[in-house]
Amino acid sequence: MAANPVQVLSKYTELFGDTFRFYLGGIKEAIVTTNPAVIQHVLKTNADNYQKSEIQVKRMGHFLGKGLLTTHGEPWKTQRRLIQKGFDRKQLEALSAIMQDSLAESLRDFDRQVRVGPVDIYPQLMKMTFAMVARSLFGAKLKDEDIDVVSNTICTVQEFIVRQTLQPYLNPWFEVSGELRRHEEMRARADSVLMEYIKTRRHQAPGNDLLQTLMDARYSDGEGMSDELVLSESMQLLVAGHETSSNALSWLLYLLSSRPDCLERIREEFHSVLGDAPLSFGDVSRLPFTTQVILEALRLYPPFWMVDRMAVADDRVGDVDIPRGSTVIVFVYGAHHAPRYWESPESFDPERFAKANEKLQTPFTHLPFGGGPRGCIGGHYAMLQILMILSDLLRKYDFQLIPGQMIEARPMVILRPKHGIRMTFTQAIARDRHAIIQE
Ligand code: HEM
Q: Which InterPro entries does this entry report, sorted A to Z (predicted)?
């Protein structure tokens, strides 16, 4: 289970059906489900009865303080309403320019690397997406060295939290050995770097980034967020947004490396919609096929392979009893691969998401961004980010998977490629598609 929970839960789903109980670590009852009716009930219809799991709130809250990821009830609702504004259409249009500038800078570095030889795309894409999210939050002037400090801290602290969760018996040792303190100090250093930007912004002209949204937000009594709350909300957005899009992009490039037909259609679409121009938010709805491909990649490799909740009071859905205090594991990967809801679930088929096939889909079986009121706040931002990076990479480069490598998914918090994904990138052969078509 610790080595590969996706494999184990998939096997149990096959053996015991779409909803079953087991005892987490032999102690705590958990209900695992891929049943869309149960999922809809837990995530949406009766969402008020379900909180984020204790693990997330307690362990993450220790390092990340209070924020969207670690609060419940009214405080969460209020923050969610205020922060949502940072991800609306108008704000995403404004963020497009910051994102493009950040990408252009990251691509200069990427170009230097790929000229030397093959690269593992996972860390490369992670660097790209992290810089983009960090600059969308703290503005275009966020320095490279500060991005590095914060990014290293988040990666290291996140791994530590996973160790604390998977090996809870080591927690007393972490305290005695000073490991806990070292991680706390690291977090404090990253905090002080970001706090500098927050304090400076209070005396500067407003920016058009997410930091400004957080600072301008007002509660019903007219008060704004304290600097400390702005900091912890920003840190939580960085944590939630740093590894997800890069993950999705890595699997997407991997899938495309063996599908020249799809690649060609995507390039055609970019070419006819964008020409040589950079992509911005207004273009997103004009790229239907590429969007289908991304949704299909997110189905096969959902970055969050599961989401969990804890029942506040006894509940029942259909014939499933959910006692108070039990954990419900929405097995996202299982729902995405269920033969009951997807024909040939293991095959990569973007046509599933074509408009004409919309009616064939069962609600709450495709959940890359979760569902209900606590679904991903950054979903539209993520789609914009993925399309922006993909459009630049595919117009600039041809790429090939290095043969003979083992590609395997490692389900930690995120479904990462276990051994990375190595590829070569060469300058794309200039294609004048209109000329080719006319010929
Ligand atoms: C492909 C990219 C992404 C995927 C697949 C993804 C997936 C998810 C999922 C499944 C959840 C729900 C978790 C749950 O119900 O427990 C979630 C929540 C969240 N996501 Fe994303 N996410 C992505 C990108 C982003 C980005 C770019 C940001 C921010 C810049 C972000 C910020 C958040 C936040 C703050 C939450 C918590 C919302 C709340 O509890 O109110 N995500 N995400």
A: Cyt_P450 (IPR001128), Cyt_P450_CS (IPR017972), Cyt_P450_E_grp-I (IPR002401), Cyt_P450_sf (IPR036396), Cytochrome_P450_Monoox (IPR050196)
Classify residue 63: in a domain, yes or no.
no
Q: How many domains does the chain have?
A: 1
Tell me the per-residue pLDDT of 252-311, one tens digit each, with 9 for 90 and over.
999 999 999 999 999 999 999 999 999 999 999 999 999 999 999 999 999 999 999 999
State the ipTM, two decimals. Answer: 0.99
| CATH for 168 | 1.10.630.10
Closest atom of ligand 1 to CA, residue 386: 1
Structure tokens at 186: 């690291």
pTM of this structure: 0.94
C-alpha 253 to ligand 1 mean position (Å): 21
Q: What are phi and psi of 142, to 5 degrees?
A: -55, 125
Q: How far is CA 435 from CA 29, 144, 392, in A?
A: 63, 42, 21
Nearest CA, atom 16, ligand 1: 307
Give residue 136 CA to ligand 1 midpoint distance, Å.
16
With the C-alpha atoms ordered 33, 35, 39, 41, is the resulting torsion angle positive or negative?
negative
